[in-house]
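Write out the 3D structure for:
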Amino acid sequence: MLNRYPRLKRALKGLHGRLFPGASVSSHYVAIDPLRTEAEGQRLRGAWQDESLPLRQRQLVDQQLKQYRSGSPVDVFDVFVRAIRELPEIATGMSLLEIGCSSGYYSEVIRIAGLPVAYSGCDYSEGFIQLARDRHPEIQFSVEDATALAYPDESFDKIGRAHV
């Protein structure tokens, strides 16, 4: 119903964000000064190596996945599933590599939605990949730098980044 009233929806999301900071995995985006992009890139590369980050992020994701499993909408998951369902390759099944997969939780979104997708994931963080492997031993996960992937050409039907 809120989709009919986008301004109200934005206002309520803003209020929710202020009342429950950090309640969403993807939140609190800010513009970066172009002169600081290199320094910020270095800082973020180091931050992703923080050993406590995977479990902290997974706690937030588990809340969203619980909500999604119960049939409640989760906007980032709904957009992802809708986009995948619209791909022509989905009819025959397809392979998908998620770059920056964190703990591989989009494999769970795919399973919950019943999508015929062979999911694989890679991430820059060894901690995230270890958590993904622990949670999903049946799925292929690898530590990769998104700027220099080691996969051979045409290894996957689709390659993407689920987060926006």
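The first strand starts at residue 94 and ends at 99.
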